């Protein structure tokens, strides 16, 4: 498989301070030496991310990039987070996703919950699986029907959940359920969020699951879960009762930047591997990179990649400055993920028949790029958000 042979990362003029360049270089070296060889070995056989690799990531502080220093994190911004995510995703997107499991969707925590959980999250010792989507509630999150029934000292949760990645390997499930009947005029009300701790490697008592037969995003399992009176403690609620929808939506700027960074990293991996292959592969007596058709493909791929990264840098800067960027986060998520699908497809084409085998990493990038257009809000949802901001929301 092709290794990292070209540095096609952006110079980031005007954005990349010496500190940021050092963070980027550290993450890039780690991804190339520690992540990429593991990905090339395990992804083709659907192996799981090794615990040893997770420990090395924890030692570098990757699980606590966004967690304040007072709780044991690095206390850095979304910009630095995106730099690290891109580098990890260039090697294996699943690993770049793993670091979100301890530092996203925590805004609704009480101070007591922050003191209790954030230090453990920052060290990678308390990682989450997000149980939000359901068979009939994907993009339409407010349609969820899982119910939480109050009992003397806690809650009993029953219902179905879909697309819960890392449900077995996580240290807790973050579960969204209705604590009051649905209001047809205000469907997002009455949803609450719960933390459900559990032993690592198991599902909680009262929860059974079936792994989803997915085509990519290997390194961990994604689950369909059934909750049958599963217990959640009385102090496990995140945010006020009935306002779980706000918890789920409250971190979407960071989540969509995270996905844009993943898409950019995946696309960069495909581009760098394509440059290497175009130089090495000889046909008709010369490297295929001498052919204008291949050269122009690579030029177009590089241009699209740089455009997406530049927008991401700007959005990160605005978010770190405390300015709301909901629409712009949707824009960069849309632009980067659509770009990633095109770039990885062109990369596979450049590799020809070799690209359609698991002997080259480009097919991994191709499979994973497609997913970036689906999770954290589909491309169509992003277009709706963007168009509504320009034209106004349509009447129901």
UniProtKB/TrEMBL annotation:
<dbReference type="GO" id="GO:0016937">
    <property type="term" value="F:short-chain fatty acyl-CoA dehydrogenase activity"/>
</dbReference>
<dbReference type="InterPro" id="IPR046373">
    <property type="entry name" value="Acyl-CoA_Oxase/DH_mid-dom_sf"/>
</dbReference>
<dbReference type="InterPro" id="IPR037069">
    <property type="entry name" value="AcylCoA_DH/ox_N_sf"/>
</dbReference>
<dbReference type="InterPro" id="IPR006089">
    <property type="entry name" value="Acyl-CoA_DH_CS"/>
</dbReference>
<dbReference type="Pfam" id="PF00441">
    <property type="entry name" value="Acyl-CoA_dh_1"/>
</dbReference>
<comment type="similarity">
    <text>Belongs to the acyl-CoA dehydrogenase family.</text>
</comment>
<feature type="domain" description="Acyl-CoA oxidase/dehydrogenase middle">
    <location>
        <begin position="129"/>
        <end position="229"/>
    </location>
</feature>
<dbReference type="InterPro" id="IPR036250">
    <property type="entry name" value="AcylCo_DH-like_C"/>
</dbReference>
<keyword id="KW-0560">Oxidoreductase</keyword>
<dbReference type="GO" id="GO:0050660">
    <property type="term" value="F:flavin adenine dinucleotide binding"/>
</dbReference>
<dbReference type="InterPro" id="IPR013786">
    <property type="entry name" value="AcylCoA_DH/ox_N"/>
</dbReference>
<dbReference type="InterPro" id="IPR006091">
    <property type="entry name" value="Acyl-CoA_Oxase/DH_mid-dom"/>
</dbReference>
<dbReference type="InterPro" id="IPR009075">
    <property type="entry name" value="AcylCo_DH/oxidase_C"/>
</dbReference>
<keyword id="KW-0274">FAD</keyword>
<feature type="domain" description="Acyl-CoA dehydrogenase/oxidase N-terminal">
    <location>
        <begin position="17"/>
        <end position="125"/>
    </location>
</feature>
<feature type="domain" description="Acyl-CoA dehydrogenase/oxidase C-terminal">
    <location>
        <begin position="242"/>
        <end position="390"/>
    </location>
</feature>
<protein>
    <submittedName>
        <fullName>Acyl-CoA dehydrogenase</fullName>
        <ecNumber>1.3.8.1</ecNumber>
        <ecNumber>1.3.99.-</ecNumber>
    </submittedName>
</protein>
<keyword id="KW-0285">Flavoprotein</keyword>
<dbReference type="InterPro" id="IPR009100">
    <property type="entry name" value="AcylCoA_DH/oxidase_NM_dom_sf"/>
</dbReference>
<dbReference type="Pfam" id="PF02771">
    <property type="entry name" value="Acyl-CoA_dh_N"/>
</dbReference>
<dbReference type="Pfam" id="PF02770">
    <property type="entry name" value="Acyl-CoA_dh_M"/>
</dbReference>
């Amino acid at each position: 498989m092709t290794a990292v042979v070209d540095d096609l990362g952006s110079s980031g003029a005007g954005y990349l301070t010496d500190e940021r360049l050092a963070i980027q270089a550290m993450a890039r070296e780690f991804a190339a030496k520690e992540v990429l060889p593991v990905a090339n070995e395990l992804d083709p056989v659907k192996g799981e991310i090794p615990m040893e690799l997770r420990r090395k990531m924890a030692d570098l502080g990757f699980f606590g990039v966004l967690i304040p220093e007072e709780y044991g994190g690095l206390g850095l911004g979304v910009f630095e987070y995106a730099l690290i995510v891109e580098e990890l995703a260039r090697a294996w997107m699943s690993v770049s996703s793993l670091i979100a499991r301890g530092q996203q969707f925590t805004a609704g925590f009480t101070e007591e919950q922050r003191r209790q959980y954030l230090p453990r999250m920052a060290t990678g010792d308390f990682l989450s699986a997000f149980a939000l989507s359901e068979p009939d509630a994907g993009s339409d999150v407010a349609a969820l029907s899982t119910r939480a029934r109050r009992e003397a000292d806690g809650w009993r949760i029953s219902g179905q959940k879909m697309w819960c990645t890392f449900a077995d390997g996580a240290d807790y499930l973050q579960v969204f359920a209705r604590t009051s009947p649905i209001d047809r005029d205000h469907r997002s009300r009455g949803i609450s969020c719960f933390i459900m701790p559990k032993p690592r490697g198991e599902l909680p008592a009262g929860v059974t699951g079936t792994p989803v037969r997915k085509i990519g995003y290997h390194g961990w399992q994604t689950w369909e879960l059934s909750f049958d009176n599963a217990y959640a403690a009385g102090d496990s609620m995140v945010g006020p009762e009935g306002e779980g929808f706000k918890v789920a939506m409250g971190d979407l700027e960071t989540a969509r930047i995270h996905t844009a960074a993943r898409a950019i990293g995946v696309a960069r991996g495909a581009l760098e591997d394509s440059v290497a292959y175009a130089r090495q592969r000889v046909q008709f007596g010369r490297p295929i990179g001498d052919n204008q058709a291949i050269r122009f493909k690579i030029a177009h791929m590089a241009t699209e990649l740089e455009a997406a990264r530049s927008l991401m840098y700007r959005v990160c800067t605005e978010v770190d400055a405390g300015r709301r960027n909901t629409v712009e986060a949707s824009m960069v998520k849309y632009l980067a993920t659509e770009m990633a699908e095109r770039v990885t497809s062109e990369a596979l084409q450049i590799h020809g028949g070799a690209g359609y085998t698991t002997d080259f990493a480009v097919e991994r990038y191709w499979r994973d790029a497609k997913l970036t257009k689906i999770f954290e809000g589909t491309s169509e949802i992003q277009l709706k958000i963007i168009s509504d901001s320009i034209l106004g929301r349509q009447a129901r």
